[in-house]
TrEMBL record:
GO BP term, pick one: phosphoenolpyruvate-dependent sugar phosphotransferase system
Pfam families: PTS_EIIB
Cross-referenced SUPFAM superfamilies: Glucose permease domain IIB
Name of this chain's protein: PTS system N-acetylglucosamine-specific IIB component (Glc family)
Organism: Halopolyspora algeriensis
Lineage, top ranks: Bacteria, Bacillati, Actinomycetota, Actinomycetes, Actinomycetes incertae sedis
NCBIfam families attached to this UniProt entry: EIIB_glc (TIGR00826)
Residue intervals of the PTS EIIB type-1 domain: 3-78
GO molecular function: kinase activity; protein-N(PI)-phosphohistidine-sugar phosphotransferase activity; protein-phosphocysteine-sugar phosphotransferase activity
GO cellular component, one term: plasma membrane
Active site residues according to the UniProt entry: 25
Keyword terms of this UniProt record: Kinase, Phosphotransferase system, Sugar transport, Transferase, Transport
Amino acid sequence: MAEDKAAAILAALGGGNNVVDIEPCITRLRCEVEDDSRVDEAALKSAGAHGVMRQGSVVQVVVGPEADTLAGDIEDLL
């Protein structure tokens, strides 16, 4: 199930080609993306994100305490 969630989050971030870097930070996934216009906030929330914060090419996806696990699963998909 976590792998499905990771795949949905990765797709909502614009796909593997759009993700430059991803790292977990307690309850968030800090993601650097190539093109922030490809990030689909509604899809991130549908995938289970509690919130999304954006600042330029950096997108923080609030996912709760599973951030470490999800970051690892997303890195496996990249």
